[in-house]
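Cross-check.
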Amino acid sequence: MSDTILSVLVLAAIAMVIGAIAWWRRGMRKQAALMLVLAAVMVANVAIWLAPVDGAHAPASGALR
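Predicted model, tokenized:
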């Protein structure tokens, strides 16, 4: 289950970057910048969940065990 959630977050971040590029080209600079910030936050959350801690496993690796 947690792998599915992380995969959806990564796919959503990619979609947000593509949407931000489209909005940037249309002149909607503020919305595009906010979408890029949101995508960066989503990627940071995935990185936090996947980063191992000294002497332990990554939080996502043992979430459902």
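The chain has a mean pLDDT of 87. The chain is about 70% helix and 0% strand. Passed to J.P. for a second look.
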